From TrEMBL, chains A, B:
It holds the Pfam family polyprenyl_synt. Keywords: Isoprene biosynthesis, Magnesium, Metal-binding, Transferase. It comes from Thermogutta terrifontis. This is Octaprenyl diphosphate synthase. The keyword Magnesium applies. Transmembrane segments: none annotated. PROSITE patterns: POLYPRENYL_SYNTHASE_1 (PS00723), POLYPRENYL_SYNTHASE_2 (PS00444).
Amino acid sequence: MSNVRIPSYDWQETAAHLEEMRQRIDAELDRRTNFPEGCPSRLREAIRYSLLAPGKRFRPLLVLLSTEACGKEWDRALPAACAVEMIHAYSLIHDDLPAMDNDDLRRGQPTCHRKFDEATAILAGDALLTLAFETLAKDIHPPRLAAECCRLLAEAAGPCQLVGGQADDIQAATAEGSLELLESIHRRKTGALIEASLMLGGTLAEATEEVLRGLREYGRALGLAFQITDDLLDLEGDEKLVGKRLKKDDAQKKLTFPRFLGVEKSREMVGQLVSQAAEALAELPIDGRHLVALAFFVGTRKH
Amino acid sequence: MSNVRIPSYDWQETAAHLEEMRQRIDAELDRRTNFPEGCPSRLREAIRYSLLAPGKRFRPLLVLLSTEACGKEWDRALPAACAVEMIHAYSLIHDDLPAMDNDDLRRGQPTCHRKFDEATAILAGDALLTLAFETLAKDIHPPRLAAECCRLLAEAAGPCQLVGGQADDIQAATAEGSLELLESIHRRKTGALIEASLMLGGTLAEATEEVLRGLREYGRALGLAFQITDDLLDLEGDEKLVGKRLKKDDAQKKLTFPRFLGVEKSREMVGQLVSQAAEALAELPIDGRHLVALAFFVGTRKH
């Protein structure tokens, strides 16, 4: 990471700022899942169990930080931040199902279908996916921006992106793969929602096309870096910190970056991507310092 | 049904009109699932297999008919009609899963997880649910109406309505129930999406509050009538016509209307609800004749 000039950051200031945002996100997610009449209590419990489980809130933070970087108050982006986390939580619940990745540990606790049952887990995922769009459509103003946010999120979560990436990921676990396929899977399965988080934040700040392009580039590099560190954590991480069963990729012969590139080269690639992310913001007329700091956090994350 | 005055309908005209609309709906659904790059072929196939299977297209017809009844061209409502059918198709795919109702026949062909596999079926449902909102957000203009349609559809498909109704339905199959619970389940599981179809059509025609209220009332009565005829068909229908395994409700001790009311009383209730639906439109300043005819078709349906 020596090829990028880092201004003298106050890392602690960023960390404190992220923590403040995280608390607001959690409070909002809580408030938005106190359903009125009509939602059965077991379903409600399952939704809240998965959505409110301790998490990094990485994607919603990206939404808030990008709105803020563009000079607008970040709390206007809270509904979009919540919607992105709902999509993320739904995709984890469904990915963990026995018919999919068959995982029994997530965010340090039993997966949704383990804690409840398969039917409830499927429905909790469906409910969160739907609630994401209700949140955008209802609480983003003006409606022009609400519609644009629905479009951005639906594209990123749809059959050509998130769902398509997951479908290919399952298939790839039993097939021969290439580094190209692996990249394509992760750009869709993980990258698209991360990119969308940035675009949502920028859109809500009514950023220019140039700024949106820069945010997208940042998100694209960051998303891939995030996934490679995920692969590395699966190999070398601490199960207690990561909160899910590790060393599974290897056992399942999953396509991973360390498998193709080795651990050292994978680490190098993370460094390059983090620099790329930072550079994508460098020339923009925005205050991207927290976003840059977050990218460096991703490069060194332990969970 | 003697207590409602029916003008001399040209039933054949309505039938021909519905057929014309049905063909446009099918062509649109086909066009909208020719995905660009990024959607794996097996997923694409599963989505199209379930969505394009021969169906009555009851809900999308309600969208188009209500826009038309309010004096606007019905083709402006095609994106909303498609979105509603996507939600319906997704809910069938997920409801049929082994962890849910465990059905192997739907619309006269093997259910999605039978034809493909469970993981693909779960993902195809997720994709259709997401695509519904993409369709609304992208193709309804102006954006103000797109946002309103997203809100209407998300509420109807969410944890307090469609998903909540399905969750209670699964629970109720193993519990004691009441007629009240049964009605509440069906208002959410089936009724909400039918009501939303009417509201979407009316909203796209920019109907007045009074008209929207009338359409909702029509939808509420029709939705319940539709569900009771569903229960009756499960008991007495022809499996080849209905296209799904019948006489399952009884075997699974499901809550049904005939179980509480008996067959005769259930049939009477259908008649009353169809009349109620027609009456809800009678005094409105709209041309509801096709909607009224459709309600009578529901009252006598064989599939």
